Amino acid sequence: MGDESTVLTPAAARHLLRRTGFGAPAKEVAKILQRGDTRGSAADRLLSFKPAAFQPAGKDLRLRQNSWIKYMIGAKNPLQEKLVLFWHDHFATAASKVGDVKMMAVQNRLLRRSCKGSFRTLLQEMNRDPAMMEFLDTVRNRKRTPNENYARELCELFGLGAKDANGSPNYTQEDVVQLARAFTGWRLDRDKPLFDEGNHDFTDEYPERGPKVVFSQVGGFGPAGRSFASAGEGPQEIDTVIDILLAHRDSDGRHTAARHVARRLLEFLAHGAFAETTPERTAVVDSVIAESGFDQSWDVQALLRAILVSDAFYETAAAAPYGAAAAKSVKWPVDFVITTMRTVGLKTKGREAYVDGGSRRSVRSHMAAMGQELFEPPSVFGWEWERSWITSATLLARARFARDVIAARGSGGTSFRPEKLVDLSLTVPGAILDATLDALGVTDQVTPEQRTILLDYLTDGGVRTSLDLADDDTRNRKLHGLFGLLLQSPAHQLH
């Protein structure tokens, strides 16, 4: 057990870097240890970044994807990009439906700029985000026939969740019907949101629809519910709706949106067990909310800090007292790919951003084969996490990517150079293995049994007692091979 004043061990430092960024480079681990960082000071340092205004560029989706991939590989603040990925999944929006890559890029910049700010503000901004307005049909929401798509997902996915920790519904169909009225009349004018008063649902025009009231059966507001016309009818209604959502309380009397977002962030940053709404997990959710004051301030940065200093975050670090058998999370394809590229110091080549070895496929196509295409989540629910990433086909795709990485023989930064990662003067197999594990930041991820297998590989079953890494043939066969095995191993694909 620990708290924000707990000094980070090497295993904890690696865990922190892996989960909040892309890999745990030995140099970054060393900096944390040399400073004597605590959980709190390390979290503060990671969260101190000023959000960048980067926006993926390119005339088509392929180039926009390549642009974002290249940015992630070189990102100075990897936690920012991890959060952009989280929000991209949370507010899942697909380019194939939106039909405008510029709008997708603008949304990407919005998520980057707002990734650790106010959740209230982020919800309000998403109400008016052009890509979202197109994706969930706000632009087709008219007073005669209100379109319920955005209102439904605002409740089910973005704000409240379908059910609370006790399995009670957080909203009703009637709530969706009423909320849809708030979003009538909005359209896009040259990719900018514009309110068209003539197409907005005003109560006087449709008295048969009743007053604009929501959550009369759930939410803790009582039978009278809450009126989203309380601040006046018109464009301001979509902001009033957000205020009501954030005041919603579940069957435990807790702020529903705070629990929903905190649980999702714990699942993303800590481990997948938080997808299960057990009393124990819910207690952790409530703890980080109380510690951060998130249900009052809606400050995402404060919530993130509370998560990053908690025992729940560190309980899957592969070190005492938890052990290498602790439950892990499967890296998203984008996390696996970007972590690999950053850790081994490999850059993409050309406009197509390909790995200059093996099949010479683009990084984008490698990730697509693994089951993830940026800007194209499979549905409004986003990607399925954890074991859903692993099939026979996607595991082969991950192996092919690892093969291409160690086969990269381009020039400069597009060539895999293990001599930059491991001291070639090392000759003892055990020391070579330790150095390689350290370079990949997975020292604590390998079990004793796996270590024995890797040493058998290096020593040809114990025949070799030393290795000459300065010899090209030995280095190409053994050191490259060792990196290849580890890149394909659970040690590198789980965190």
- Overall geometric form: elongated
**Fraction in helix:** 40-55%
Number of strand elements: 4
Largest sheet: 2 strands, antiparallel
Fraction of residues in β-strands: under 5%
Could you tell me the radius of gyration in angstroms? 25 Å
Could you give a quick summary of the protein structure above?
This protein has 495 residues and is mainly α. Helices cover 50% and strands 2% of the residues.
List keywords for this structure.
two-stranded antiparallel sheet, 2% strand, mainly alpha
Describe the structure.
The protein is an all-alpha fold and 495 residues long. Among the domains are: 10-46 and 254-314, no CATH class; 419-493, no CATH class. It is 50% helix and 2% strand. It contains 24 helices and four strands. It has helices at 10-20, 26-35, 39-46, 61-74, 78-90, 95-98, 101-113, 119-127, 130-135, 149-159, 173-182, 237-247, 256-269, 279-292, 294-297, 300-308, 311-314, 333-344, 363-370, 392-407, 429-440, 448-459, 472-488, 490-493, and strands at residues 186-189, 192-195, 213-214, 226-227. The strands form two sheets. Strands 1-2 form a two-stranded antiparallel sheet. α13 packs across α16. It is elongated. The two termini are 20 Å apart. Residues 319-324 have low confidence and may be disordered.
